[in-house]
């Protein structure tokens, strides 16, 4: 007999009506877990928007920035708009009644002080706003668990909206500080530039004030000298005024004398014409006149005035004329005869008469002008004397003023130097101020648009590889494993786990085991194939490796067939079926298909390492979601583990077949078949 001979085990289900139906039911039974369970839990999270939840807004509002604001209204609008769940805005009494009778799974309430708590951030007593969530476990444990997730989402939505608004106000203040510091820094820089110019100007001012002080000292000395000179001038002008008066009087007398002299000159001229004798007398008189004129010229020239100098020149000219044309006081050495001398004398006497009497004559005109000039000189000197007195008073005041000005200039010089030193310090301080303001402006953070969201929600979720998939896909590996193990268990409720005929015929144990195993394996592969097709085309499960998923399901099915066959063969059908159900339960809770094994009790964590369903779940996960072979070795580990388990239980069946070749007393009294 061939090892792979199937025998007649499956043929008996081809006769009649019920056997084929029973075999079909066995093949479809794994779909209870692998199809129905997966379908029913396919995407409960995605349908949370159908979950009825009561929303109660008890917020009474608060004064925010001088305006009565009800923050709860904004939150309610946001929550309803989000459609996270099916919110019903109701009163507190309606919410309480709805939770009690199951109308709502839970309720969310915004308390009366919600807005007040939100606005308390700007008060001396800030406190957090609260959100009241009311659950009722009689509405279902998973409903409560989903409600907790919804409340977490609601809190995130509220914190994101309120946090962004509050942080945005804070960042606006930071932005104002930053702008103010930048403006202050720019102003300080400009002020530093201005203070630098002022410092330079103050240096020049200090130098100028020093020069001014030196010059004012010189001016003070000059003013004192000017005052002394003015006094001397006034004294001299007084003397000159007196002299001018005397000169005027003298010239008046000279005029009178000239008149008389002219008359006498006329008489002399007439006398010279009559008599030569008086010529000598005339010569002497002429000499006296010259002496008088010389003295007069010296006196007039001593005045040292333009008019008097001109007058003195005229007198000198007259003297020269008289000396040249007049009668010499002594006889000429050339021996000129007396007649010629008398003639000349007569002519000179005539000319003298003319000069002395004719206003148009140079002498008489000069005398007249000298007399007039002397009068004018006397009058002018008198006025000049009066003015010099006023000049003395002015120079006195000037001297006093320049003295005070010199003292003030010393104070100005000292103040200008202090100002220059102060401006140097101010310039340095302005530079330091500008530097510190700019450094402070750089230290004050500047925030771009949208920064408020970053501050209120600093961390956002980013899933670079696998995102949270559909809930049903996550449960699929475990439900497929449960379905296939259930199918393997039920299969041997319909098929015989061992072929007694083959054992009694003396066939080798392996052949006897395969005679019962191969029909069951065909059923298991059929179960896996049907489940795969339902998953793929009915539920829409798209695995990363679909062919690998089908092959893995077939491998798991035949492995589970060996397990259930081995238990039935080793412990008998009755005990074996009970053990299969118990093992299935233990595998479900230890496989890590629903909760991580680290969260479970220690015995389950220990059994997890040898649990066949652990490796079936791991293998199916890698086929559905993919794997990184370089880092993840759980797929080959699962394959190896399933092959080892397959080998162990197949060996156990072979040993039990070898054991059953010998009849025992219990075989003559078989157990009641269940």
From TrEMBL:
Membrane association type: Multi-pass membrane protein
InterPro entries tied to this protein = ABC2_TM (IPR013525), Phage_infect_YhgE_C (IPR017501), Phage_infect_YhgE_N (IPR017500), T7SS_ABC-Transporter (IPR051328), xxxLxxG_rpt (IPR023908)
Q: Name one GO cellular component term.
A: membrane
The entry lists its GO molecular-function terms as:
ABC-type transporter activity
Q: What is this protein called?
A: YhgE/Pip domain protein
Domain named ABC-2 type transporter transmembrane is located at 25-166, 441-655
Organism of provenance: Corynebacterium matruchotii ATCC 14266
Q: Where in the cell is it found?
A: Membrane
Keyword Transmembrane listed: yes
Key words, A-Z: Membrane, Transmembrane, Transmembrane helix
Identify the taxonomic lineage of the organism of origin: Bacteria, Bacillati, Actinomycetota, Actinomycetes, Mycobacteriales
One of its Pfam families is ABC2_membrane_3
Main subcellular localisation: membrane
